[in-house]
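hey can u check if this looks right to u? its 117 residues, i copy pasted from the old doc so theres a chance i mangled smth
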Amino acid sequence: MFEHRELDAVAALLHLAPTSPDSLRPGLALLHGWIRMPTRYTSSADTHAMVARIAPSILELLHDGIPRGRRALFAALADRYSKEEVELTLMRLAVTGQILAASGKYTLAPTTEPEQG
């Protein structure tokens, strides 16, 4: 692990601001203003739980068949969920084929009835 004075020397060479104790994340040697790292990494289980929590609200909004843009969905869900959570859930729903994204609007994917035979 680098010491602050070593990081300050590198920062000076790169013409960056000197480091401060607050600019370093635990276990990572980062130069202040150089790399932005998330403050928390989520596990797959956290992501699945988030999608399971938010997806019903998004699907309910799209159930009426009217295509809605991202901003409209963010605004409609802003009082309950963060923009990042809604955005990640939209991506997951689109990748899994539950919603369709076309021309910047989202709609429910058509449901296919299982064949009886």
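Residues 32 and 79 are 33 Å apart (CA to CA).
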